[in-house]
């Protein structure tokens, strides 16, 4: 996903659509703003989740450290488990479900927001670009549509995963 989004943003930058037809952002750097937003709001958070998963699966702290924040119903479920290994497996499942579901929802909003920005450019705007620039812009929009569909499918899978708990 990271490569696809970076490719979309690179194509947008290279299409020069916003430089030629107008940039709606305050600082006139919409592609830079989008790059920064995807980096801060998705890629960095994904890296933190992956590091957290690594912690939970390779060098975990005590189970009590992770479970202190859980409501009583989850604590009761954990108490029914016989070993710390079983408890930690359940904690890992709950933590990853919650973090990933929230992150993927955020990614969906960001992709749709980017599509909305691109959809502000009409055919008259696109005709101002060279053929190669037009193709890069169209490819960006198409790739974002596919990303959006893939993210929707991922959200459905995550919802099913959470429901299997």
How would you sum up this structure, described in words?
The chain has one domain. The chain is built from eight helices and no strands. It has helices at residues 2-15, 17-21, 30-58, 63-67, 72-79, 84-119, 123-127, 131-163. Helix 1 packs antiparallel against helix 3, helix 1 runs antiparallel to helix 8 (131-163) and helix 6 packs antiparallel against helix 8. The radius of gyration is 21 Å and the shape is elongated. The model has no long low-confidence stretch (mean pLDDT 93).
Tell me briefly what this model is.
The chain is an all-alpha fold and 165 residues long. The chain is 82% helix and 0% strand.
**Low-pLDDT runs:** none
Number of helices: 8
Number of domains: 1
Structural class: mainly alpha
Radius of gyration: 21 Å
Strand runs, count: 0
End-to-end gap: 26 Å
The share of residues in helices is over 70%
Note the run of SSEs as H and E.
HHHHHHHH
Give the percentage of residues in beta strands: under 5%
The description of the largest β-sheet is: none
Topology:
Layout: H1 2-15, H2 17-21, H3 30-58, H4 63-67, H5 72-79, H6 84-119, H7 123-127, H8 131-163
Helix pairs in contact: 1-3, 1-8, 3-6, 6-8
